[in-house]
Design goal:
428 residues; five-stranded antiparallel beta sheet; alpha+beta; 9 helices; globular
Length: 428
């Protein structure tokens, strides 16, 4: 089936994010005499603290921007991602950014440029996500894996430890053990839903650090769907009908609105701290019009108009796995410098060799995600990976002959072609 799904910040989603950093000299030379000052803020231990509105608004605006970009590329495919995972990961990367690289990240993600204010906001966010909840599991974990062959700034490490509450462990990225260690951490922090977030780089000797962020959620519906009421029914994909299993709740009280040719339903999880918001066009072919008009302000307007009333609910059970190339999307959103081998400016993560004029840049960024929604509730996970490399490492090309090719057998002394052919189907 073809269904558009987004995992917003406080709504039933599970997230894991991995970020690979090849520490940055950028266009600013770091020496031991210009180490950035540490002004990190320790995370408050307050179980009543809420996610600050600044973070929520910035995260949610980015979520809608990202969603609209990915549907431009493919509007007829299931979508599921975690904006919060990307937000926290790129926030950690932003701690090392300066100049136009930082300005572009602020514009795309809405980061607070004042470091003390930003660290306070992020500390409250992480504290809120990790506070004790007797009804649902919602936990965030961060880790910084510096290379044994590089020196990271103490100020950067301290910021991640104090503000992001990151575990720090040195690894040798030329060894397969580093891959196993990071992937095991990912598995441990996502209830084994995400098990492979990192693989050895083709330039593993140039890896300076890997940064990973994991958020895991599992919650049961406040009002569960009786399994005996789950029935098979048609689901319109936009081109034809497919048979799907529909969970059913006969009149039950939910926050609901029907406005602007859209139905909006908010379904809480136990404890009512978290919920799933469903947005359904009234017209079965109305998704295109809905997505054209979609904005964060419009979503807030719909939520403000919800009223508690009895509603009959039928939604399909669903599960999916997705993967995104974040580099092309973020460049299109207005953040090209961090991916540029000539314009990137990330000087505050690691000590740059004084005799080298290196620029460090993000060479690739991806996110993989998983979600499962059934009668009991929701479980989900996502992994984002960001790889940063420096420009004086020659790119190692790939030669993958997975399509027709010509081949020649020649005499190497004279260059004489002895045999020549073309492979179109190697199985014949």
């Amino acid at each position: 089936m073809k269904l558009q799904i987004v995992a917003p910040v406080a709504i039933a989603s599970v997230v894991l994010l991995a970020v690979v950093l090849y520490a940055t000299g950028g266009d600013t030379t770091n020496t031991l005499t210009d180490i950035p000052q540490d002004d990190s803020v320790a995370i408050p231990q307050d179980d009543s603290v809420a996610i600050p509105q600044h973070i929520a608004d910035a995260n949610n605006s980015f979520a809608v921007d990202f969603y609209k970009k990915i549907i431009q590329a493919d509007a007829n495919t299931n979508q599921f991602f975690s904006p919060t995972s990307m937000y926290i990961a790129f926030s950690a990367l932003y701690e090392g950014a300066e100049g136009n690289t930082a300005f572009q990240m602020e514009d795309v993600f809405g980061f607070e440029p004042d470091s003390q204010e930003r660290h306070m906001l992020l500390g409250n966010t992480i504290s809120s996500l990790n506070r004790d909840d007797p009804y649902a599991t919602l936990k965030m974990a961060n880790a910084l894996w510096p290379s044994k062959h590089y020196t990271l700034y103490d100020s950067y490490i301290t910021t991640l430890q104090d503000t992001y509450q990151a575990h720090v462990e040195n690894l040798d990225f030329t060894s397969d053990d580093s891959v196993d260690t990071i992937n095991q951490w990912a598995s441990d922090n996502t209830n084994e839903k995400i098990t492979k977030v990192y693989k050895k780089s083709t330039a593993s000797g140039s890896v300076v650090a890997v940064l990973t962020n994991a958020i895991y959620f599992k919650g049961d519906w406040l009002t569960a769907f009786p399994k005996e009421d789950t029935v098979e029914n048609d689901f319109w994909t936009g081109t034809d009908n497919v048979r799907a299993e529909f969970m059913t709740l006969w009149p039950s009280a939910f926050d609901y609105a029907h406005v602007d040719n859209v139905q909006v339903l908010q379904m809480p999880y136990k404890g009512e701290r978290l919920s799933m918001l469903l947005i359904l066009p009234s017209d079965k072919d109305g998704m295109g019009d809905l997505e054209d008009s979609l904005s964060y302000d419009l979503i807030r307007e719909w939520q403000d108009g919800l009223q508690n009333m009895d509603v009959n609910v039928k939604i399909p059970k669903f599960g999916m796995s997705t993967k995104y190339d974040l580099k092309s999307i973020l460049v299109d959103l207005g953040m090209p410098y961090v991916f540029s081998d000539s314009d990137s400016n990330l000087p505050n993560i690691a000590v740059s060799p004084p005799d080298l004029n290196r620029i460090f840049f993000v060479s690739k960024a991806t996110q993989a995600a998983f979600v499962n929604v059934n009668e009991e509730g929701t479980e989900a996970a996502a992994v984002t990976t960001i790889e940063v490399m420096f420009d004086d490492v020659p790119e190692i090309p790939y030669f993958v002959a997975d399509h027709p090719f010509i081949f020649i057998i020649q005499d190497n002394e004279s260059g004489t072609i002895l045999f020549m052919g073309k492979v179109v189907d190697p199985t014949k």
